[in-house]
Amino acid sequence: MKVSADAYSLLDGKLFEIENTATSGILQKNPRDCCVEIKNIVFEIRQILKNEFYTDGSDEPPAA
What we know:
Layout: H1 5-27, H2 31-52
Helix pairs in contact: 1-2
């Protein structure tokens, strides 16, 4: 699967945010607040996927 550099960068940045938020929740913050923040980041990732990615009917899964 190929994606644009912009889409890759957006997703990579969001994954970094999730990682940092989870680490903060483990080490110092209120875990509930971190869960809410992670939920919001996941929503943003879904928006990126919706706007930057597409599937067409000929897409097939990789061979095993």
